[in-house]
Design brief:
This protein is an alpha+beta fold. Helix content is 19%, strand content 29%.
Length: 368
């Protein structure tokens, strides 16, 4: 029996470090379930319809030269082939990050059976599996995992900088910067990329050691639990001589939306004793292109239009609409995951989940 158990553990370890995420599920069932529905797990063109539609139009597809592999399918990045999406180990084995003008690069640990992670404990240490008994031998305590070492000493994970290997910036072949996430959001230990997009939620992180909470591995964002991010946006109203102003306050250390396909929209409805009136909506975008027109990422050389709400910005939107004290303004701030115009060019206009208006924050404000 003992031989069978040891054989099982050996096979489990071998599968684990072959980056089989299903093995992680055995101890991290809740986290695995969250991760399975995340955009990290769906990072490959095989899993992401937008990425697939973009890759279908890319001139390098005919050469089977998938240059997005470094971040989107890191297990096959050296061969530049479309492979499996981001795995658990692709994030938890990042030892350091090399900074480059075109894009940063993740450097993976060469230590076998070692994963990095963050901890809320004051003392960060390397935890190896060990069991101990009390002096009577009646009770037994367990520390660490029997399948891998946990290294809590890597500052990348406590500061959120671990995200900057892929999410910092990216230039195309023309030297044009397609996107950038400022480092200001990955410097603090108490507020960073991880604490915002992976907040603590109820439930144990592992079946071996029970914990009251764990970091959310669904990665809150456009496609998954966007309302978890609503706390970082406030909306206020001030009455003016000709109507009222709405103020959108972005508390995030980066633009409200970073991807050039996204469209943020403000919708307002005036509610009075006589009924309701839908007011003009306002859109906020960052459009990349060439020669003053929108273009695909590999062709872009300039920012054609940029009205996106910036990091830590308070954006005023004025409404010239007669109001009275006691009137109410219903405000919806939301987004389109893919600009409806861009969706048409990508042949995705029929994908309702990509082109529907998704509410980030809804609030009713009273005119004083």
């Amino acid at each position: 029996m003992m031989l069978k158990i040891l054989l099982f553990v050996g096979l489990l370890q071998a599968a684990l470090f072959a980056q089989d995420d299903v093995v992680c599920k055995k101890c991290h069932a809740t986290i695995y379930h969250e991760f399975y529905d995340s955009m990290h797990r769906k990072s490959s063109p095989k899993e992401d319809k937008v990425h697939q539609a973009t890759w279908d139009l890319h001139p390098l597809k005919s050469k089977d030269d998938y240059t997005c592999a470094q971040c989107h399918t890191p297990n096959t990045q050296e061969s530049n082939k479309v492979g499996d999406p981001i795995s658990c180990t692709a994030c938890h084995a990042i030892a350091s990050i090399e900074e480059h003008p075109t894009a940063n690069q993740n450097i993976y640990t060469d230590k076998p059976k070692t994963f990095f992670s963050a901890t809320t404990n004051a003392e960060r240490q390397i935890v190896k599996f060990q069991q101990s008994k009390d002096w009577l031998g009646l009770s037994k305590s367990t520390e660490g995992s029997p399948y891998h070492t946990i290294d809590y000493t890597n500052d990348l994970y406590s500061s959120g900088k671990v995200c900057m290997g892929c999410h910092s910036h990216r230039q195309n072949g023309h030297g044009f910067e397609l996107c950038r996430t400022p480092m200001e959001g990955a410097k603090e230990g108490t507020k960073n990329c991880i604490t915002c997009h992976m907040p603590q939620v109820k439930g144990s992180a592992t079946s071996i050691t029970q914990t009251p909470t764990h970091a959310y591995h669904g990665f809150a964002g456009v496609y998954n639990d966007p309302k978890l991010l609503a706390q970082y946006v406030d909306i206020k109203l001030e009455r003016t001589q000709n109507g009222f102003d709405l103020f959108i306050i972005n508390h995030a250390p980066h633009d409200l939306m970073l991807h050039p396909l996204r469209v943020v929209e403000l919708q307002a409805t005036l509610l009075t004793q006589n009924g309701s009136k839908k007011l003009p909506s306002y859109s906020f975008v960052r459009i990349i292109g060439k020669d003053g027109k929108p273009a695909m990422p590999w062709l872009a050389t300039e920012v054609v239009k940029d009205t996106m709400i910036k990091a830590n910005e308070t954006r005023k939107v004025a409404f010239d609409e007669a109001v009275q004290s006691g009137d109410t303004v219903e405000v919806k701030l939301g987004f389109y995951p893919v600009d409806p115009k861009a969706a048409k060019n990508l042949n995705l206009e029929s994908e309702r989940s990509l082109t529907k208006f998704t509410i980030l924050k809804k609030i009713e404000l009273t005119i004083e």
